[in-house]
Design a protein that fits this description.
The complex is a heterodimer of chains A (750) and B (81). Chain A has 750 residues and is an alpha+beta fold. In chain A, strand 18, helix 14 and strand 19 (502-506) form a beta-alpha-beta unit. Chain A is globular and about 85 Å long. Chain B contains 3 helices and 5 strands. Classes of the chains: A alpha+beta (750), B alpha+beta (81).
């Protein structure tokens, strides 16, 4: 479904307006139902026993005492979850991560579970489970794990992507490489070279709502799961595969979601809750504590990145090189690969090479986090770019404009770009008042660019027109950022009716065809394509019904602004029929009127952003204060500008927290020391200024309205923008994220 | 006949060929021919491959035609957040 160029000049009636979101009132009054708000009669409380050790063989688990405790209805170990993955390594890793089979691979790894009549009994039962561990050497740091003499985490992992295949296992699961040209020859021609090594620490998505679900497996083999997730169809598929169920017999209903950011694209406790329910014969509610969310869901990678960039005297980047090491947790991953693809994507480069290494560590299994892997690569590259601009003697914005990718540029990860927005975001930043605002003592300004791919994917939508002429839109992409409002706007736009006449709901897995999850900034992009398609199918039927009512050929009926209009010399004078009038007559013209759409929404447009940050650093304490922050990003077409701005602000806020405070801190014993929001500090409102935003609209040629995904790119530039600001404020290049006060003081004293 | 470019790691599994000429009408045929010609690509293809046609990335539309003269680039299939 291609972009209709006429939309770039047309005046939209609904798209681009800012109505109140349909779920807003429920959320501010407490009526909205999140994962933990669902309950069933007779439900049990599920609890999971977790390993206190970073790396240990599980010699024996004795559950007999727990099973005998009055009130305990089921006790579960890996023995209750047979391996049904048929050699699918990725699914096996998910199974092993949900319940450790032979070894505990990180502090927090699930080893057993119980279902009991109440929380107190469940907790007591966990204490009665006896686990015999044989401790093994562990490694939690990405660089230490990368070293050849590191403790081996998985003896079945042999590095892929290298030739010849290694004859010994290692902690490096994969090497990947991207690029083109001759980097070494280019670097030899450079007049200026910057070469640095950067580190970023592991962070968590920090969603406010912990993972929560209620599972109910019936004796006839059917089951229901109510769950907080970004992708209930994917959860159904994974749970059904792991438990040996037919997917159609498991109905999954997604709750409202209190944040996900990629962390709710993976199953963690849900298969365990279903297995407990199956064993107990009763519904089981399982809600993770905050401690469990930190220790046993999926944080992002910790990284170590070498960057080398060379430029000519005229400011042209002549060669760029990066080696990226990303932690994956104790299982194989593909996180460095993404970092290697995104690292230099903003630039037009003749000679570029990136190499990624996936590194196993004794930490939780890495999960996606908003533009996964891109922020860390951008931190390293954009820091080096800033330093190189200084060496060349150019303004950092002008230096980037000179080297920015444009339509026709061969991307550093391979293909040639279509129309893109990196240049316009840089021009907008150059002309933004923020860049001209004065700075005081101990204050610095930084800017940085960022890139994300955006995805589409499988999408299914039903649009049903009621006999009163109002519209129900059922979509399968979970609403994580206001997409119900955006999709209602799109349906209203296509049908030519008012936004208030459309209600969009997230359908469960039994009432709609398969949908990929809401990730890759695809929710509004893909479901709006499906909604447009469904609405156009409905309009076709509306025209047919109007033709029946008028008794004229359907070819003589057009659809204009919510009405069927008769054309032609013989019946051009017929009064137009509204959608409401046609719907009211539907019972006698052929029955219900609906439009359906099942599509693969490929063709998501890539996305770019440029951010500006002003910061003040207290040189005595190392404390920082963000004074001003501006986001400029290409949205393609902003369907609901307020929620686009919200995505921009949210990504920036998370990136600022990542840059300044957030990190997983492990002790020498391999245990996580700060598994709570008191010690793992995300930014709160009082930590941040109002984040200014500027939406640019460079249409995506593959979407009828030109829409691009907007949910992820905004977290890519902040680490670098903040680091450049701090570096400029203190006069020392910051190389390690987060730039917490002790780390800033150490850099100043070095 | 279309010319297909492989990213670095994929080229290593295709006997070092970073550019391959292949007879294929659409993405499905492209994957079939590549697997036949370079069996070592199979695990990488199982893990997931996306195809960029003139800069637009296709992950799932295997019926997508490969126009003569188009730039066709194979990429890893990525996850989002």
């Amino acid at each position: 479904m291609n972009f209709d160029p006429s939309h770039s000049k047309r005046s939209f009636s609904s798209v681009g307006t800012r109505p109140i979101r349909p779920d807003g009132v429920d959320k501010v009054t407490g009526r909205a139902r999140y994962g933990a708000d669902f309950n069933m009669p007779g439900q049990l409380v599920g609890r999971i026993l977790r390993s206190p050790h970073a790396h240990a063989i599980i010699r024996k688990i004795d559950t007999s005492k727990a099973a005998q405790l009055p009130g305990v209805k089921a006790v579960l170990t890996a023995a209750d979850l047979p391996d049904l993955t048929n050699g699918d390594a990725a699914m096996y890793d998910i199974l092993d991560n949900c319940m450790a089979r032979k070894k505990a691979l990180y502090d927090g790894h699930a080893v057993a579970a119980v279902a009991a009549i109440d929380a107190r009994t469940a907790k007591q039962a966990l204490k009665l489970i006896e686990v015999e561990y044989e401790l093994l050497p562990h490694v939690t740091d990405v660089d230490q794990a990368f070293a050849p003499d590191a403790p081996l985490i998985n003896d079945t992992i042999f590095t892929t992507g290298v030739d010849p295949k290694p004859d010994r296992p290692s902690n490096v699961s994969m090497r990947s490489q991207f690029g083109h040209g001759d980097v070494d020859a280019g670097m030899a021609r450079a007049d200026f070279v910057v070469e640095r090594t950067f580190k970023t620490e592991q962070t968590h998505q920090g969603y406010i709502e912990p993972h929560a679900c209620v599972a109910n497996v019936c004796s006839d083999g059917t089951a229901d799961l109510w769950v907080c997730t970004q992708g209930h169809f994917v959860y159904r598929q994974h749970c059904a595969e792991l438990l040996g169920m037919d997917a159609s017999k498991l109905r999954v209903t997604s709750s409202e979601i209190g944040g996900g950011f990629g962390g709710k694209t993976h199953v963690w406790a849900e298969p365990v809750a279903l297995a407990l329910s199956r064993k107990a014969g009763r519904p089981v509610k399982l809600v993770m504590t905050r401690d469990e969310v930190f220790r046993a869901s999926g944080p992002t990678s910790a990284t170590s990145i070498d960057v080398k960039i060379g430029a000519l005297k005229d400011g042209t980047i002549i060669a760029a090189d990066a080696t990226l090491r990303y932690s994956c947790g104790p299982y194989a991953g593909a996180w460095a690969e993404v970092g290697a693809m995104t690292a230099f994507a903003c630039y037009k480069l003749e000679n570029v090479r990136t190499v990624g290494y996936e590194v196993l560590v004794n930490r939780p299994k890495t999960a996606a986090y908003r533009a996964p892997s891109a922020p860390m690569a951008a931190f390293a590259v954009e820091s080096a770019i800033d330093e190189l601009a200084k060496k060349v003697g150019m303004d950092p914005v002008d230096f980037r404009i000179r080297n920015a990718a444009q339509e026709g540029t061969k991307a550093s990860y391979g293909p040639v770009y279509g129309p893109i927005g990196i240049g316009p975001t840089l021009e907008a930043v150059k002309n933004h008042p923020h860049m001209k605002a004065p700075l005081g003592k101990n204050q610095g300004r930084g800017m940085a660019c960022g890139f994300w791919f955006n995805f589409g994917g499988q999408t299914c939508t039903d649009l049903n027109i009621g006999i009163d002429g109002t519209v129900s839109l059922a979509v399968g992409t979970v609403d994580v950022g206001g997409s119900r409002a955006s999709l209602s706007l799109v349906a209203a736009e296509e049908l030519g009716i008012d936004y208030s006449q459309v209600r969009t709901v997230i359908a469960d897995t039994s009432t709609l065809g398969y949908n990929d999850m809401t990730d890759g900034s695809r929710g509004t992009f893909s479901s709006s394509m499906a909604t447009i398609s469904a609405a156009r199918n409905a309009i076709k039927i509306l025209r047919e019904r109007a033709a029946q009512m008028w008794d004229i050929p359907v070819e003589d009926v057009t659809w204009e602004k919510g009405h069927a209009v008769a054309k032609g010399e013989t019946h051009g004078n017929l009064p137009k029929l509204s959608l409401k009038e046609i719907a009211a007559a539907s019972g006698t013209t052929g029955g219900p009127i609906a439009g359906h759409s099942e599509i693969v929404a490929d063709g998501a447009g890539v996305s770019f952003a440029t951010h500006i940050c002003d910061i003040e650093v207290d040189p005595e304490t190392g404390a920082t204060k963000v004074l001003r922050y501006t986001v400029v990003q290409d949205a393609g077409k902003a369907v609901h500008p307020t929620y686009v701005e919200g995505q921009y602000q949210g990504g920036a806020a998370q990136g600022i927290g990542w840059a300044l405070n957030e990190e997983y801190i492990y002790g020498k014993d391999g245990r996580l020391q700060n598994a709570g929001f008191l010690d793992y500090r995300i930014p709160v409102c009082s930590d941040l200024p109002m984040i200014d935003t500027q939406i640019l609209e460079i249409p995506n040629p593959n979407h009828p309205y030109g829409v691009r995904g907007v949910g992820e790119t905004s977290i890519v530039p902040p680490l670098a923008a903040v680091a450049n600001a701090v570096s400029n404020a203190v006069g020392v290049r910051m190389l390690h994220i987060p730039m917490s006060p002790p780390r800033i003081l150490a850099a100043l004293e070095a | 006949m279309v010319e297909v470019t492989l990213w670095g790691s994929l080229a290593a599994a295709a006997e070092g060929n970073s550019k391959i000429e292949i007879e294929a009408k659409n993405i499905r045929e492209l994957f079939e021919r590549l697997s036949e010609r370079f069996p070592r690509l199979e695990p990488l293809m199982t893990r997931g491959i996306a195809v960029a046609i003139d800069g637009t990335i296709y992950r799932d539309t295997w019926s997508k035609e490969l126009p003569t003269g188009a730039e066709i680039y194979l990429l890893p299939r990525l996850a989002g957040g």
